[in-house]
UniProtKB/TrEMBL annotation:
GO terms for molecular function: histone deacetylase activity, NAD-dependent; metal ion binding; NAD+ binding; transcription corepressor activity. Belongs to the sirtuin family. Class IV subfamily. Residues 445-460 have a biased composition (Basic and acidic residues). It comes from Ziziphus jujuba. It comes from the Eukaryota. It is an enzyme of class 2 (transferase). One of its GO terms (cellular component) is nucleus. Gene3D superfamilies: 2.20.28.200, TPP-binding domain, YEATS domain. This is protein acetyllysine N-acetyltransferase.
Amino acid sequence: MSLGYAEKLSYIEDVGKVGMTEYFDPPHVLQEKVERLAMLLKKSKHLVVFTGAGISTSCGIPDFRGPKGIWTLQREGKALPEASLPFHRAMPSLTHMALVELERAGILKFVISQNVDGLHLRSGIPREKLAELHGNSFMETCSSCGIEYLRDFEVETIGLKETSRRCSDNKCGARLKDTVLDWEDALPKKEMNLAEKHCRMADVVLCLGTSLQITPACNLPLKSLRGGGKIVIVNLQKTPKDKKASLVIHGLVDKVILGAMDVLNMQIPPFVRIDLFQIILTEALSIDKKYVNWTLRVASVHGQKAPLPFIKSVEVSFLDSQDYKAAILDKEPFQLKRRTLQTKSFEMVLKFNFSDGCGCSSTEINIPIDFQVPADCFRLDRDAIFQKLRETAIQDSCCGQNAVIEKKTILSPNSEVTVYAIITNIVRYNKTSKSTEADSLSNGDVKRRIDRENGTETSRKRSKGRKRKSKF
């Protein structure tokens, strides 16, 4: 979570002075309840999961009503919790990835989330099986044609306001809006309708890490009761809906879900984060047509003016050439200008130094340059490239692998644009007897521990229901 995210939450009023006491079921009781939960999941024909901030606390994102939650600390006049890593680099928790596996297995049918951290979508839950009731801090949407844009940076506004970017559809071009609700905004109708539909169909609604106090969202799980469905609540605090639940588990969400997955003999898949960037090479002949004046630019795929948060700097060097001076690009825009004989070919080496929160410190990409050879244009199967990168990264237990997914030319100005996909994090979810540990496997062998999981309410932020036409 970034400081900017905490600042965004400063508008939150002091609502619902509820008890902050946390409860932990005794080990033998917890084990029995976990086994009951696993059996409910196994027998379920239409499982719906309803999530709050408590599933993301182990990702380094504070909750709201826990002892160290944002609302609690504000009420006590204390400073907000500091982030352990940038908000845009938060990785899905063990619970997020367990839900992905349950969805792939056909058990989980739909996820309803009150969170704005975007981790469900980033973890791999299909967009059509997810309702983000309060929005997504990393999503913009076009109010004209309905396309959604998932960003690798936190969108700068909240409250369904216009941002600085436009829809990239050539037939549209309308201004984009953020998707995060402010307090006065109504919950998005389309998202709510989908959530209600699936709750009415559900035979089990599993509530994870939410205090179930913010209306009208907190009443969604109750929709399952009319059809004979059951409600299961996993939370460290008591909730107003406990009496309606068939099973209430007071325990760390990650620990409970890990236990249920063990009983079901299901593996929790690793999380592999893939980021995108583009290299733009622009050229122009000198007046005497002897030289080429060229510019190298490393930019976001979300637009040349969009931030590129996962790259700290770019070091440029040249192989087998004394004609060019190496350079370090440490400020955005990452841009280098040079002049070259038109007949001369050479090879550049770009060393990308990654920002905090990435799984490895750097990686290198070699780029051959020959201004006399026309560039090939192509667009590869993005999903196939992503899958191959994931498999390689998991097999090698390191990140930094990259691949070209698209190359195109632009006539004015004369430019060659190459889009790269790169692995910037790998997280494996290991099992230990005392706690749950997530190892972020990288060239630097970085490790982080999932420390604790407060079951509480979530942040209030989301987009209006529009066409589910996505452009990620």
